[in-house]
Amino acid sequence: MLDAIIWGLIQGLTEFLPVSSSGHLVLIPALLNRPGPDLATNAMLHLGTLAAVVVFYRADIARMARFDRAARRLITIIVIATIPAVVLGLLFESRVEELITDPGKVAFILIFTGVVLLATTQVRLGDRRAEEIEPLDGLVIGLAQAFALIPGISRSGMTISAGLSRGMDRAESARFAFLLGIPVIAGAGLLGIVDVLRSGESIPATVWIGVLVAGLSGYAAISILLRLLGRVGLAPFGLYCVTFGTFAVFAL
Predict the structure, then answer these.
(1) Which residues are CB-contacts of 249 (< 8 A; sequence separation ≥ 6)?
(2) What count of Cα atoms within 13 Å lies in the side-chain half-sphere of residue 18?
(3) Is this prediction's pTM over 0.85?
(4) What is the pLDDT of residues 144-177, one digit of tens each?
(5) What is the pLDDT of residues 202-217, one digit of tens each?
(6) What is the rounded distance in angstroms from the CA atom of residue 8 to the CA atom of residue 196?
(7) Distance (Å, rounded) from C-alpha 163 to C-alpha 177?
(8) Are the beta carbons of 178 and 15 closer than 8 angstroms?
(9) To 5 degrees, how large is the angle CA 128–CA 187–CA 118?
């Protein structure tokens, strides 16, 4: 049960804070010299973080469900932005899985994430809303999200950074990044569960505790991030990624 709580806490916090959940789920077990979460646990934890973002942005989702002009535009942009992750995920799944077994490379990749986040301090903030961006903007942000399939690359960090580069402010970039993450998180969780069912692996009852912890900590992480973004931006998270990644490089 303790393992389920630990993995749920790590998944919930790092899925939404721009520090790479996949990177932490590779590096922390390696640094502690213990096995990471198994396939069943990893798949189920995504359901917790999915619930967190759906509940947090329930008002936006309800507005999208009305399917008025603004909602149709936003949905269209989200669909366009999701395509790169789906295509590249299918094409490079095996290579991504290879990286999971190489914590040293993941540590260097986490440092790269930190550098990108630090670079956002030089980006001039705009005032565009997600409903106002063009399909090309959505594609650029979607490519950034697809890049985050690599362990150590933060999905939220890359998509928020890309949103800033397309003329949105920090809060709006985060809003779009998290709405965009819903289909990706859902897809990752469902595909993981399918793999579990195919392998015949059972899902321990204690995993549901991890799912609950992931959901609660994920909701808290979104709230914390939105508050910090307005005050300090992404730089502190970039500094953390560089520091933790560098430590992991020398410790592993």
Answers:
(1) 104, 107, 108, 111
(2) 34
(3) yes
(4) 999 988 999 999 999 999 999 999 999 999 999 9
(5) 777 778 898 999 999 9
(6) 18
(7) 8
(8) no
(9) 45
125 in helix, strand or coil?
coil
Phi, psi of 56 (to 5 degrees): -65, -40
Query: Look-up: residue for tokens 């928020």?
Result: 160
Provide the 3-class DSSP secondary structure of residue 133: coil
Q: Report the candidate in 203, 195, 112 with the shortest Cα–Cα distance to residue 161.
A: 112
Distance, in Å, from the CA atom of 241 to the CA atom of 94, rounded to the nearest integer, reads 25
How many whole angstroms separate alpha carbon 107 and alpha carbon 202? 31
Closest CA to 37 of 68, 66, 2, 72: 2
With contact defined as beta carbons under 8 Å apart, do 17 and 238 qualify?
Answer: no
**Could you tell me the two tokens for 155?**
């999905």
Q: Which single residue is written with the structure tokens 């469900």?
A: 65
Query: What pLDDT digit, counting tens, does each position of 218-246 carry?
Result: 999 999 999 999 889 999 999 999 999 99
- β-partners of residue 128 are 168
Sorted by where each begins, the domain ranges of the chain are 2-31+38-251
Spell out where the chain has E strands: none
- Residue pair 193/44 in contact by the 8 Å Cβ criterion: yes
* Concatenated DSSP letters of 70-101: HHHHHHHHHHHHHHHHHHHHHHSHHHHHHHHT
Quick one: tokens of 122? Answer: 């030089």
